[in-house]
Hints:
The chain contains three helices and five strands, in the order αβββαββα.
Amino acid sequence: xxxxxCIFCRIAAGEIPSETVYEDEYFKAILDLAPAAKGHTLIxxxxxxxxxxxLEEPHASRVLPLAAKIGQxxxxxxxxxxxxxxxxxxxxxxxxxxxxHMHVIPRVADETEALLVWEPGSASKEEMAxxxxxxxxxxxx
Length: 141
Ligand code: 5GP
Ligand code: ZN
């Protein structure tokens, strides 16, 4: 279901114009208004899911193959050398539009600045065992 109060629902439905690079019955892929790189694309399902934890069929199994297809089209069409797939879930993770979307960001060799940079941290064996067990516990109903 699409929602009137959601900007990406309205873009996916074609009510708000966008530069569309791909469209099928399940998705619309549009250029990001504030691109991290030329060609930065957002894949929007034509159904409202807040984030990946809500994502269901028929979109769930199709979004990753579509991202690969768009990345290949970028390599051919834009001549980029690679691309990043990025997908934010929750405000703490940088999500600003709460309609699931996948970023596809073209990358050019020599433009080496990483988009996602973190200082490699450290964790002891004991800490990793404790962290691992807490995540495994999270699978419990
Ligand atoms: P998020 O931070 O939620 O993962 O990404 C939201 C993205 O949507 C941002 O990169 C932002 O530039 C883009 N964006 C927000 N509003 C619009 C819009 O109305 N049209 C387009 N094309 N992109 C938008
Ligand atoms: Zn929506």
